[in-house]
Specification:
mainly alpha, 14 helices, globular
């Protein structure tokens, strides 16, 4: 049985041994987009629809850049690429990885559709809900939505654990959509342990991000001031610090999933030899 603690140790060892090679990728793919995107909410204050559409397009572009960075780190953690060739592998496997990501995203989005569908069928104003206007929802509907969201969250966590190896499979085995099935096969019997790792990572990363935003945001607001709305020196400095914290956590998932892939494929190979 693969132990998550062992995979974490191998992940930490990889990150510490390759920090010099990972740093440029993290700066380009994670830090720069995160530090810029941190000002988008403030920038939309009083902005017109055209400017908001531009910011949405930039968010999509930043997400694509971050995906490329994750692919490069994954290739390095799989021990199939050096610092230079990792970028080439990430570029070459970008479209297949994007296709797999979109399929998984669309599948997850379809699981959410029953909520707006039932609300619309029940006569609720979906335009008002989309605009975040206050809408009175009956207690029965509120209970249904709450219970459905709880069940959906648990289901999505389990699915995330079963599909967590899709990206390493795309890179290592040159698969596309069949990477989903391969990830499903490799994670059989390990889903609950992977869910525990996902929850731990999510809690720590969210708390760290909130702490950085709250603490440094308050300090910069006192030092640089935070007069008026929109982008200020305080918000820019805060977004830079929060972006640095987020970047530190964003290098962990691709490295961990790559090391987990290596561990689970090795286990599958041993089981195959024993069966033979």
């Amino acid at each position: 049985m693969v132990k998550m603690g062992t995979v974490w140790d191998r992940t930490a060892e990889f990150l510490s041994d390759n920090i010099a090679a990972i740093l440029p990728i993290a700066l380009l793919a994670f830090f720069v987009p995160a530090s810029i995107e941190g000002n988008f909410e403030a920038a939309t204050t009083g902005a017109g629809p055209g400017f908001k559409a531009l910011l949405s397009a930039l968010q999509i572009l930043f997400a694509l850049v971050s995906l490329w960075g994750s692919l490069a780190i994954t290739a390095m953690a799989l021990d199939i690429a050096s610092e230079r060739s990792a970028a080439n592998i990430a570029t070459r496997r970008f479209l297949p990885a994007l296709a797999v990501t979109l399929v998984i995203f669309v599948g997850a989005a379809l699981l959410v559709l029953p909520i707006p569908g039932i609300l619309a069928f029940s006569g609720y104003d979906m335009a008002a809900i989309a605009n975040r206007d206050p809408v009175a929802i009956s207690s029965q509907m509120g209970w249904f939505i709450g219970l459905y969201l709880i069940a959906l969250t648990l289901l999505l966590l389990w699915l995330a654990a079963r599909l967590i190896l899709a990206t390493p499979v795309v890179i290592r085995e040159n698969r596309i959509l069949s990477a989903i099935g391969q990830s499903w096969s490799l994670t059989r019997g390990a889903a609950l342990r992977i869910v525990g790792v996902i929850l731990l990572y999510a809690i720590v990363s969210i708390v760290a991000g909130l702490a950085a935003r709250t603490v440094f945001g308050s300090i910069f607001a006192l030092v640089a001031g935070n007069d008026g709305e929109g982008v200020t020196l305080s918000t820019v400095m805060t977004s830079i610090v929060v972006g640095a914290v987020q970047s530190a956590f964003m290098v962990i998932p691709p490295a961990f999933t790559a090391r987990l892939y290596l561990a689970l494929t090795a286990q599958a190979g041993r089981h195959g030899e024993a069966a033979a």
